[in-house]
Amino acid sequence: MRIVIVGGVAGGMSCAARARRLDESAEIVVLERGAHVSFANCGLPYFVGGEITEERSLLVQTPQSLRAALALDVRTGSEVTAVDISAKTVSVRTEDGTYELSYDALVLSPGASALRPPLPGLDSPRVRTLRTVEDAVALRDEVLAGARRAVVLGAGFIGIEAAEALARQGLEVSVVELAPHPLPPLETELAWLITQELGELGVEVRTGIAAASVEHGDDADVVVLADGARLAADIIVLSVGVWPDTAPFEAAGITCERGAIVVDAHGRTSAPGVWAAGDATVSVDAVTGIRRPVALAGPANRAGRLIADDILRPDDARALPHPVGTAIVRVGRLTAALTGANRAALDAAGIEYRTLHLHPNQHAGYFPGAAQVHLVVHIRTADGALLGAQAVGTEGVDKRIDVLATAIRAGLRVDDLIDLDLAYSPPYGQAKDPVNLAGMVGENVLAGTLRLWYPEDLDEARENALILDVRTPAEYATGFVPSSLNVPHTELRDRLDEVRAAAAGRAVRVMCQSGVRSAIAHRVLVQAGFDSASLSGGMLTLRAWLGARQNEVLERPGVLAHA
Amino acid sequence: MRIVIVGGVAGGMSCAARARRLDESAEIVVLERGAHVSFANCGLPYFVGGEITEERSLLVQTPQSLRAALALDVRTGSEVTAVDISAKTVSVRTEDGTYELSYDALVLSPGASALRPPLPGLDSPRVRTLRTVEDAVALRDEVLAGARRAVVLGAGFIGIEAAEALARQGLEVSVVELAPHPLPPLETELAWLITQELGELGVEVRTGIAAASVEHGDDADVVVLADGARLAADIIVLSVGVWPDTAPFEAAGITCERGAIVVDAHGRTSAPGVWAAGDATVSVDAVTGIRRPVALAGPANRAGRLIADDILRPDDARALPHPVGTAIVRVGRLTAALTGANRAALDAAGIEYRTLHLHPNQHAGYFPGAAQVHLVVHIRTADGALLGAQAVGTEGVDKRIDVLATAIRAGLRVDDLIDLDLAYSPPYGQAKDPVNLAGMVGENVLAGTLRLWYPEDLDEARENALILDVRTPAEYATGFVPSSLNVPHTELRDRLDEVRAAAAGRAVRVMCQSGVRSAIAHRVLVQAGFDSASLSGGMLTLRAWLGARQNEVLERPGVLAHA
């Protein structure tokens, strides 16, 4: 039996390795059009930034090591240009010419290429991508050769990593992003923290704007933006998205959807004996059911492995799980991570949801180094099912998102989070872990014990309600919503008459710094007969939300105008 | 309605706070016999060790702050000495005398006291416990007053934290533990890493031995061990376990089991209108069903909250979940954490299980700072249900144990771990996270694709099988099992005849450094017709297991004798 695998990274190599472990007798040929297989594609920005110093560190495996360990026939510089699905052959182009190779099973894991928008001047040699080891080495060489200014087109995960890497190397870096904020999948109120951190790193962020053209110059190129701004650049990194590399397979009659290969629950394509995995395939989102390619290493590796199972032991092969879509990125001192669906995906899928905001410490507040995890959790209104979560902070972000990703995969509801026994000791967590706290807030919301209002409701609240700020006077003085009333939560029970007079029959919208004290105050108010709601995430969330919008309520970034 | 709560830490205080949020009109009285409520009991060792510098940092709340925020009537220095369950009153002893207090609902959260074994001389003033803020302040005062030598009796979590704290302050510290290794709930092969780290910290560890007596002296006491060894000590920290503080409640006729209060699914005791939470209650282990008190903050807080629900909105109150029993401790540079059941608990419960050992890096190996997570996972033989997990390492331990604790709570099976979408980027994880890898190993074991052997089988393997070491010759030369054959896994396919000749009809027991290469080799051997098995966790696990046993195969600690 000959298994031919197209693409020697992530999905393809996982498939090859698994196939060998299952079957010593199979002939396993891996065709990779690039110069390297199984390389550390996620490590490329860190090589450019100088944290990974050796090029060979990026080469996790070589054709030689794979032959020795797993008896794989790995052929680099070998591009599959055509497939004959009835003859069961592929055409392989190498620098020495083209040959035909027959297969019993064909696994397509070609990945995706950098999307190249139809932008005048994008053919400049100063325009780079960061997809291969060669890309990374070339970029690093330019950095070492004294490049001074870089423009990164696209502020997605890789764009941000590239921007930080270049800034670390001392370049002046601008990032241009069409979406309203960097890391577009992140919710607005969390992305603001990233925007600020990029500023700390010396990266200029230009969001909500498109690049219009690239003007070639002798000394430097100029990226011209839609508003006419001109950004000189020695290096331009193109990182506005990817597109499945599936032309020869679609041409062979394999069913594709917007360029991505359609697969069934076992990774089988429309052609008999042909499977596909990774960035070039259509996935079904586990939360929303939306169909789209998911460019993540984890699901690709998993699909490759399960496809090997399906090829070699089809009766026992498990189905590919739908990806939950967990991702993480380091930005300066911060970590941003997300799992499941965000607001945009939930809105697109027509799912009704509530959002929770929390800012708990990552470990006991009395232990040195306590720092906030800024956490957003979306739950289904109907039953409290966990739909998605995001977090930003300096520490403990990855842990909470991984726990929530596990909970989403397991189908837990928000109140189940209360019951998780998470490891607690002062250096590691809290007796009520941030995840447990999210469960408690969610349960209260579902039970009606807690009613939330959101930054989006600010204008309406200012118009029609009394905004009651229950922080201390000292906190209040650092910035507050104009015309809000300040009554510290510790004095609220004794000053209810004052609140009643100020409300004058209107609803009361309570707020504090993070949403904890305002929830307590809300309970006092509700039981005293007020129409009350507590601001989700408090001033911390409100500030970030307003900051991201450059809302005019702000006197200066991060601080609200005084009344 | 008057709710009386006995005990103002963890469970008791969680109950009080939740009750107030649910009901503004209830009278809520918290009776605490100590001087402080809601103090940071888990922070006490870090105060002794000087990492937490201010005593007030340990006082998370005060009676005043709780009155202001939550209108709680918190009475410290108030010990409940009796309960009349028919009259619904408690007797409260204070320094001013005793009074009776009636209740509509009574919540018992008295906690547990340090167990005092019947040891001659234990009444010395140099014998200390570490349960209260006063204990911690007194210990720290002695440290600052120049104490030089300390003996810690008991190497459980708090004993180890205390030992490290005292060693950090420059004291000579010995720890005495009856069990064969420190942190008795940890599996032997992981505990060895802790033993070594304690050595690095300058803590002398004496295990498998009891203290026989304490001899009082003018200058110092002497702890005499069962083997006659004499350890001089300025400070003796007693930390051999705890005992529920339930005497007055048992005397009142409330059903107890070996001193711990028996509660139903809603925390109700045998007496109407009386609930109980925390260290003083019997819990049912979520994995094994074994009934025992669980002295952990998380379950206590949760129980307190759910009891408030049951008192004030009984129709909507959820049942208390059975604790999974997750715990964590920092030891020097290491973190040790565990969740679910260990071997001892599984053996006691008669559950058939398999054990997996892995040593993956916490993040991408090519990214700076990669370090191994030493992971042990127990799965049910019958169906792969996750039963327990433990890990030790310098980084990423807490995250993996929290993910596994979540998976256990959710009832996932080991192969479900493959499907978890955990956050990956080089600084945070691996495209195949350690937890995913555990799932793959477990699936292979359940499917029969991988057959494991264990350090426990070493003697039998040496006698009846060929031990085949597939590491490189350089690795092999650093220590190996006597009479084992070294064939690197990359040469195995070409040297099968050699293996066949050496095996001479015997089984082959393969091993490598961590269990990854030996699993590949196992597949080659099985398909070539050998009776083969792969050493779980490889030489890393074997060394730790032998080290913990001071096995004579060792020539020097950590390195096996050469043949």
TrEMBL record, chains A, B:
<dbReference type="Pfam" id="PF00581">
    <property type="entry name" value="Rhodanese"/>
</dbReference>
<dbReference type="InterPro" id="IPR050260">
    <property type="entry name" value="FAD-bd_OxRdtase"/>
</dbReference>
<dbReference type="InterPro" id="IPR016156">
    <property type="entry name" value="FAD/NAD-linked_Rdtase_dimer_sf"/>
</dbReference>
<keyword id="KW-0560">Oxidoreductase</keyword>
<dbReference type="Pfam" id="PF02852">
    <property type="entry name" value="Pyr_redox_dim"/>
</dbReference>
<dbReference type="InterPro" id="IPR004099">
    <property type="entry name" value="Pyr_nucl-diS_OxRdtase_dimer"/>
</dbReference>
<dbReference type="InterPro" id="IPR001763">
    <property type="entry name" value="Rhodanese-like_dom"/>
</dbReference>
<protein>
    <submittedName>
        <fullName>Pyridine nucleotide-disulfide oxidoreductase</fullName>
    </submittedName>
</protein>
<comment type="similarity">
    <text>Belongs to the class-III pyridine nucleotide-disulfide oxidoreductase family.</text>
</comment>
<dbReference type="Pfam" id="PF07992">
    <property type="entry name" value="Pyr_redox_2"/>
</dbReference>
<dbReference type="InterPro" id="IPR036873">
    <property type="entry name" value="Rhodanese-like_dom_sf"/>
</dbReference>
<feature type="domain" description="Rhodanese">
    <location>
        <begin position="461"/>
        <end position="554"/>
    </location>
</feature>
<dbReference type="GO" id="GO:0016491">
    <property type="term" value="F:oxidoreductase activity"/>
</dbReference>
<keyword id="KW-0274">FAD</keyword>
<keyword id="KW-0285">Flavoprotein</keyword>
<dbReference type="InterPro" id="IPR036188">
    <property type="entry name" value="FAD/NAD-bd_sf"/>
</dbReference>
<keyword id="KW-0676">Redox-active center</keyword>
<dbReference type="InterPro" id="IPR023753">
    <property type="entry name" value="FAD/NAD-binding_dom"/>
</dbReference>
